[in-house]
Amino acid sequence: MKQIPTLAVTMGDPGGIGPRLIARAIASGKFANRARLLIFGDARTLDAAAALDGVRLDYRRMEMGGALSEHISELRESPIVMIELPELRDSHFERGRVSAANGAASAIWIEAGVRACLDNAAQALVTAPISKEAIRAAGVAFPGHTEMLAGLSGGCEVRMMLTGGKLRVVLETIHVALREVPHLIEYNHLVRSIELIERWSQRFLRRKARIGVCGLNPHAGENGEFGREEIDIIRPAIQEAWSRGIDASGPYPADTVFHRACRGEFDFVLAMYHDQGLAPLKTIAFETGVNVTIGLPFVRTSPDHGTAFDRAWIPEAPLSHRSFENALELALRWSRGRRDKKPGKARL
Q1: pLDDT (0 to 100) of residue 69
Q2: What are the phi and psi torsion angles at 319 (to 5°)?
Q3: What whole-number distance in Å separates Cα of residue 160 and Cα of residue 211?
Q4: How high is the pLDDT of residue 123?
Q5: C-alpha–C-alpha distance, residues 70 and 65, integer Å
Q6: Quick check: 343 pLDDT over 50?
Q7: 158 in Cβ contact with 296 (< 8 Å)
Q8: Which domains does the chain have, with CATH numbers?
Q9: Mean pLDDT taken over the chain
Q10: Phi-psi region for residue 228, left (φ > 0), alpha (ψ -120 to 50) or beta?
């Protein structure tokens, strides 16, 4: 088989939507001859998901306990390989509900997928949704995907980016109460966020980033009338980044900067808190957005939604796989250092 990028794909919580997303992606044929997929998961669960959607899958099944890099030549013989881990051989997985066994398995698959990327057996990682409650029940030390990926990659500093439509939005703070956000807006952290965006853009988009930075307060504080965070913290951080040769500007009012980004003025918007950044993004890309972890030594993408326990294993329930296919598409593109140059197309 010709040399094509290898994507490590983790099944996520086996009781959630992940198995059906993977089954649909394989059955679509969209990635045939374009990517080699190493799926870390459970073959019985994948087959059950395929049967639920009435599709047939052609893949190779392999149980592996050692280093993946030792089996590279063997893996290259098949375009799609389901890699099952011996420690999960006798596991029983619940469907459509939170389960500690499911949480443990999803964490083990993530660890194996990260190891594949760090060992250069795969060029990118695509993760199906996990349940934070399930991994907590399993005693996993990390609160979620992003923290787990950073920890498994050596404790590197990371940021969450969501991309969809014409927006790429990086979050300065993530899952915290709104009242805590002003206390978490910190000069050095902001400078590092801007640097991470620039470094990621240079490495995977192959160009300098144009970064629009949001203010925290309405009207970006209006010269201190509505708060001083912009004057005392955000603007100095932007000026420091600018002095380091990074094209960052602002702070801009959040009610205008996303519109300007959609018009092409900025490649990235750095938002100060979760809903400030994700409300506009999900308005234009609710079923198509992709979650990206920047700062890792490899590309990582994921669909921008959860496990959908309430619908995942119900045949007639409506399920969209567009976000997951976009996650695969972007992982494939960025693993080759591609850029989207098609005019009129949404820039993911």
Answers
A1: 61
A2: -135, 135
A3: 15
A4: 93
A5: 11
A6: no
A7: yes
A8: 1-158+295-348 (3.40.718.10), 166-284 (3.40.718.10)
A9: 91
A10: alpha
Contact 275, 177 (CB under 8 A): no
pLDDT at 63: 84
Structure tokens at 237: 């951080």
Q: To the nearest whole percent, how much of the chain has pLDDT over 90? A: 79
CB of 41 closer than 8 Å to CB of 71: no
High-pLDDT (> 70) share of the chain, %: 92
The Cα 332–Cα 124 span in angstroms is: 8
Q: Residue 300 and residue 117: Cα distance in Å, rounded?
A: 10
Report the b/e string of 90-109 with b at 16+ CB within 10 A: ebebbbbbbbbbbbbbbbbb
Question: Measuring CA to CA, which residue among 19, 6, 31, 22 is closest to residue 329?
Answer: 31
Note if the bond before 251 is cis, omega within 30 degrees: yes
Cα–Cα distance, 226 to 240 (Å, whole number)? 24
Separation CA 272–CA 201 (nearest Å): 20
Residue reference for tokens 């979620």: 144
Query: Strand, coil or helix: what is 239?
Result: helix
Give residue 192's identity as a one-letter amino acid code. R
Rounded Cα distance between 57 and 52, Å, is 12
CA 17 to chain centre: 16
Q: What are 18's two structure tokens?
A: 């992940």
pLDDT band at residue 110 under the 50/70/90 scheme = very high
H helices of the chain, in order, are 18-28, 43-53, 72-75, 100-118, 132-137, 145-152, 181-184, 187-200, 229, 235-243, 254-262, 274-284, 322-335
pLDDT digit string, tens, across residues 241-281: 999 999 999 999 999 999 999 999 999 999 999 999 999 99
To 10 degrees, the CA torsion angle through 332, 333, 337, 342?
A: 170
Are 111 and 82 in contact by the 8 Å Cβ rule? The answer is: no
Looking at the predicted structure, is the pLDDT value of residue 320 above 90? no
Q: What SS3 state is found at 244?
A: coil
Residue 55 · residue 23 · CB < 8 Å: yes
Would you tell me how many other CB atoms lie within 10 Å of the CB of residue 333? 19
